[in-house]
Design goal:
The chain is mainly α. The chain has five helices and no strands. It starts with a helix and ends in a 5-residue tail after the last helix.
Length: about 70
């Protein structure tokens, strides 16, 4: 293998991205809602995954907490 290919392969292994799973994102959103930490990142994740009211209610969030953030949800 040439030096160039070796550098390209080494460069690609250093740039590993993060893996987002839907159920982990829902847990993070619920944690943020319950602790009143609605950040821009939380809002981005809600819109990126298209989190709905039904998903959050099935995950265990109360009606009062849902009604406080329903303007963010689909």
């Amino acid at each position: 293998m040439g030096k160039s290919k070796k550098r390209i392969f080494s460069k690609n292994t250093d740039n590993i991205g993060i893996t987002l799973k839907r159920n982990e994102i829902i847990d993070n959103i619920i944690y943020d809602i319950k602790n009143n930490k609605l950040t821009e990142e939380t809002k981005r994740l809600i819109s990126l995954f298209g989190i709905s009211v039904e998903e959050l209610s099935e995950a265990g969030i109360s009606f009062e907490e849902l009604s406080a953030v329903k303007h963010l949800l689909y």
